[in-house]
């Protein structure tokens, strides 16, 4: 029994210690002033790896989720004779919740795991160490561009996801099920508020992007430099990112849309 | 001795995960010479290089490199000092996403503001020195183990360092590649006036090129001197290592509890 | 891949993201570019605001002209005081107009409709509507109907 409690305490201490290390790590990454001449090409390269390469999965998922929302929404709303509200329902769901959250989950799986594996492998093959010995700080050279790229790419992807989803919903609702196009857009426009819905969704995706990128690069940098260590770090990235995104989503939703 | 030492360690103590790796190591690396640091695997030879490079900090003791006490240096000064060091990692540690050419150009691009054509000249010169000028367009994944090490060597001398550290340069190399590396290390040392530190457990190769050697065991220096002095060293431990005898003062067994305890013959252990 | 084409692709990606944001702003939330214009405040006192809520719309002839800022209780009159912000370019609401709480559809959300009066003077910023009509309470309506009053 005492052993169990001690184990619990040790886990707690480990958790606090690793949070502390992650914070210290973040400080080390962000402390340096980036030099535009060397930093920009590195950032572009990472934006390509993290953003552009995630585009396909984000667009395809967005399209399907929008189409499903169109179908489900139409079925439910037509019971009340208000199927013209389907546009409003799709837009609000996507812009407020599904856009940022699903994109962040896809991002963690597609880009986050790749970041962790890449950095972990660089650590295992002593590339980070050798960079350090060359007088180059790997935190700034390797980690910082990846963190910033995640931070910048995620909101872009979330916006694209929402737009593609709304378009997919329109395909189903308007083209297939015959909702009048004017009321589809009209209902949407009268109920979606730019500041309350679109901007809040954007803020969510910025927060998620930062958290996912942070977790991914930290797990890579902190991993045990063996093949087992890298694979467990990659798994941790996906699990922790997903949990962090869902948890933070609740907190942010409560702050943004809750009435208190 | 004191004035000609490029690196000197004084009573360095270091432990990792509860195990004491160095217990008061004191040694000197003379300037402009090749110094071999030898010892059985697991005695922390690589750790020693990391201590010299400032990647790890000792619990106590001094590590003076080129007149500066490394553990006490601030970040900026440490990074500046590292620009004068080259290190050849055991795996080569080439950047896998860059070509051979870009790998060698990397330190130049980061630390100098040289124009592109000058960088090109320097890179090709360094690659020529290791005999791989023709391989400049290859990616690291297309190189053999020996070639990887030679490219890494070209990269570590790109900035014309004062000190170069080799971490197990001969491990896992075929005899030809090993011969090439031995020749390269010797040539670089004599032509560029480098101070070289060589960490290895390959006794014949190391002794054939070094001017000065230290043998580490059990966290201590058990013998140092020129290769001739070491061969004539009175210590049994030194002779065991140089001669490659399986048992002797360096124990065959990893420290363990009494045999009886593990096999349960001492009775009563339920 | 050459640095140049990498930059072009990443540039296109960023443009696509910003374009998506623009689409969400203009087409989805119906934000018109001049929406950051000035608004002015009007008040109205109601006996019963029913399910009226902040951020609800204020409309005239079915067209949205503003939104509800806040709803508070006036302790002296025991009436609800609704603060509305009205678009600045609707500056000619006749002074004797009435603020009416209506429901969109049978069960939809409640909003304030302004039924236009005939006065030559207009309401200015900070004015209060003279005439109001409170929320239609279906329960009360039914009980009134049933008791034949």
From TrEMBL, chain A:
Listed under GO cellular component are:
ATP-binding cassette (ABC) transporter complex
Note whether Cell inner membrane occurs among the keywords: yes
Q: Which organism was this protein described from?
A: Marinobacter fuscus
Superkingdom assignment: Bacteria
Pfam families assigned: MlaE
Its record classes its membrane topology as:
Multi-pass membrane protein
Cellular compartments annotated: Cell inner membrane
InterPro entries linked = ABC_MlaE_roteobac, MlaE_Permease, Permease_MalE
Molecular-function annotations in GO: phospholipid transporter activity
- What's the protein here called? Intermembrane phospholipid transport system permease protein MlaE
UniProtKB/TrEMBL annotation, chain B:
InterPro entries referenced in this protein's UniProt entry, alphabetically: AAA+_ATPase, ABC_transporter-like_ATP-bd, P-loop_NTPase
Q: Which UniProt keywords apply?
A: ATP-binding, Nucleotide-binding, Transport
Q: Do you know which CDD domains this protein is assigned to?
A: ABC_Org_Solvent_Resistant (cd03261)
Single GO MF annotation? ATP binding
Protein name per Swiss-Prot or TrEMBL: Phospholipid ABC transporter ATP-binding protein MlaF
Would I find S-adenosyl-L-methionine among this entry's keywords? Answer: no
Q: In this protein, which residues make up the domain named ABC transporter?
A: 7-243
Could you confirm whether the keyword Ribonucleoprotein appears in this record? no
UniProtKB/TrEMBL annotation, chain C:
> In the record, what terms sit under GO molecular function?
phospholipid binding; phospholipid transporter activity
Q: Which domain of life is it from?
A: Bacteria
Which is an annotated Pfam family here? MlaD
- The Mce/MlaD domain covers which part of the protein? 38-115
Q: Note the InterPro entries from the entry.
A: ABC_MlaD, Mce/MlaD, MlaD_Phospholipid_Transporter
Alphabetized NCBIfam families for the sequence:
OM_asym_MlaD
> What name does UniProt use for this protein?
Outer membrane lipid asymmetry maintenance protein MlaD
Which species does the entry assign this protein to? Answer: Marinobacter fuscus
